[in-house]
Each structure stands twice: as structure tokens, then as C-alpha cells.
Amino acid sequence: QPFEKLASFDEVDPEFHVELFIQKVDQCKIMFDFYDPSSDIQGKELKRITLHELTSFISTTRMTFTSEMYEHVVEMFKVNVFRPIPPPVNPVGEIYDPDEDEPVYELAWPHMQMVYEFFLRFVESPDFN
Asked: Using an 8 Å Cβ cutoff, are 114 and 48 in contact?
């Protein structure tokens, strides 16, 4: 399913913030192939922007978190962070030696880092219960 640009929180009435928050969190469950840098560039950028917007929103807006919000946030965190670890491979071809070789980083780390940051801000929020 394509990643679509949703309205910003400033564009909707506060009474719709919870609904928009959940829609944005659910959109962030869409995963992208970071092993192909040319695939779905727009979707990757929209997800990055949405994660930033969600993080800013919970950092600057006071509201009561609903149980539905908790469920969606935990599910989005799970989908983005819990994944199989690829086997250690040395790009040069020999067996990977963690003491000798440069680390091989997860290509999706920039998005994963934003997911971690959002989740941390969510659980540290004064509105977290």
C-alpha cells in the first residue's frame, strides 16, 4: 500500500488529533526496502517526515493518550524494530570478524532511529500513563 501524505496536526481541529495521530502511526507500519536505494524514494521520505511530525507532536502537545493510541504505537514500534538479524557478512567476501572488520550497519537505521526516538518521547511524555 502506498504511503500517502496526511494532513498535518495544524490543519485539523484538536478534536481530530487522536484520529489523525493513529492514522499517522499506522502509516508508519509500512516497511520499505533500504537495500535498494532507488526504490520508493518518495515513500521513504514521507515516512521520515511523518515520524518527525509525530515526535514533534507528542513533545509539544498535551493530551490524554487513549488505550487505542497505546496499542497502535506499540504495534508500529514492533513492526519497525523487531526484525531478523541478517547474518554477519564481510562485503569483501571473507568471513566477517567483528574484531578486525568494519561493522556492517542496518541500511534502515535512519528510519529505525526515528522510530526509537518517537517511542522514547511517547513513553517519557507527561501524558503517558
From this structure: yes
C-alpha–C-alpha distance, residues 116 and 93, integer Å: 32
Q: What is the DSSP string of 82-119?
A: --PPPPP--TTSSPP-TTTSPP---TTHHHHHHHHHHH
Q: Where are the domains of the chain?
A: 9-124
How many C-beta atoms surround the C-beta of residue 65 within 10 A? 16
Compute mean pLDDT per 10 residues along the chain, 129 residues long, and list them.
Answer: 89 96 97 86 94 96 92 97 70 68 75 94 89
Query: Phi/psi at 126 (nearest 5 deg)?
Result: -60, -20
- Predicted TM-score of the model (pTM): 0.83
